[in-house]
Amino acid sequence: MASVYDLDFAELATHLGGQPRYRVDQVWRGLWDEGRDLADITTVPKALRSQLVEDFPSALEVANDVTSDRGATRKWVFRLHDGATIETVVMLYADRVTVCVSSQAGCAMNCSFCATGQAGFTRQLSVGEVVEQVMFAARAAAPRRLTNVVFMGMGEPLANYPVTVGVVRRLHDYRKMSARHLTVSTVGVAPAIERLADEGLSLTLAVSLHAANDETRNELVPLNRRYPLERLYVACERWLEVTSRRVSFEWALIDGVNDTDQALRELAQYAGDLRAHVNLIPLNPTPGYLVRGSTPERVRAFRDGLEALGVNVTVRNTRGRSIDAACGQLAAVTNGHRRAVTVRSR
Ligand code: SAH
């Protein structure tokens, strides 16, 4: 089932067949510049609007809507037309408004500490299903303007490559978002990183590193068995070379696992050679992974240790923990949701 956001301008014009060009423009502007629901594009006659609403029902049905951080973080669980569920989070900051989108319903990467990984894979999302998440969040954030999109919700964006690139292109070309404000986060699908480098997009690449020795990384991020650190390094180097943009490494600090002095030295070396930026994330608790996150003192010491070794590092401010909307928690606990997320046989 197509979303109206799957269409490019020519396809919309074709769909609107007999309509004059200025009508196509009006619908296009309503959709992309103003981010309106089809039903609210009041510049076009009611009959046309109703026809469009009928042709392109919204891809997202709200199944749950929760707010935390005193209104600064809001999460939706959306049910898609086939019953699959995904989650989207919008975060309001002083200087930006960021939406965290899902690129797949569920995820097949199976990272041990991630709630989505624990729940398994359901299906790929379409371009329209991802763009609709962005537009939904943009409407909810108004009058603030949505400035950033991060592909850090459910799913592995580079395992849904054409859709991820399609969404980025549309947000850049049609929505006029700065590519730098679009962040694709990956477990490290090395060949896809190299392919993405060649797309000519100045987007931000985040790699979920979490360990800089293969033994530990194999445990945390099973895809490391296929693309071990050395292979991943080659891809990151290529990214830096081709795009002139630094890679950002994500590192969820886990007590006794990747917050030791040795882990710190390994990370400093791996990141230092690439001049990468390191983003430390306090581990968020998930039901299927019983190891604790590092203490706040250890997080600070780890950050200071990296800085002392010349690494560019920040600690991510955790949002949405209390509503299970923090990184890696997105498959949790909405009533009836767990059932919907579980892989069905297809
Ligand atoms: N599949 C992509 C994007 C989704 S996950 C990826 O792995 O990058 C977004 C980020 O949240 C990743 O860095 C992921 O490692 C991190 N994450 C997953 N589970 C987490 C948890 N329990 N606590 C903190 N961060 C977590």
How would the blueprint of this fold be written?
Blueprint: H1 9-15, H2 21-33, H3 46-55, E1 61-68, E2 73-79, E3 85-92, E4 97-100, E5 104-106, H4 115-119, E6 121-124, H5 127-141, E7 148-151, H6 161-173, E8 182-186, H7 190-197, E9 204-208, H8 214-220, H9 229-243, E10 248-253, H10 261-274, E11 277-282, H11 296-308, E12 312-315, H12 337-341
Parallel strand pairs: 4-7, 7-8, 8-9, 9-10, 10-11, 11-12
Antiparallel strand pairs: 1-2, 2-3, 3-4, 5-6
Helix pairs in contact: 5-6, 7-9
Bound molecules: S-adenosyl-L-homocysteine.
> Any idea what the radius of gyration is?
21 Å
Major beta sheet summary: 10 strands, mixed
Which residues sit in consecutive blocks of at least 5 with pLDDT less than 50? 333-346
Taking the alpha carbons of the first and last residues, their distance comes to 17 Å
Quaternary? single chain
Q: Would you count the extended β strands for me?
A: 12
Beta fraction of the residues? 15-25%
The count of helical stretches stands at 12
Helix content: 25-40%
* Ions and ligands: S-adenosyl-L-homocysteine
Mean of residue pLDDT values: 92
Summarize the helix and strand pattern as letters: HHHEEEEEHEHEHEHEHHEHEHEH
Strand order of the largest sheet: 1-2-3-4-7-8-9-10-11-12
Structural class: alpha/beta
Task: Estimate the global geometry from the Cα principal axes.
Answer: globular
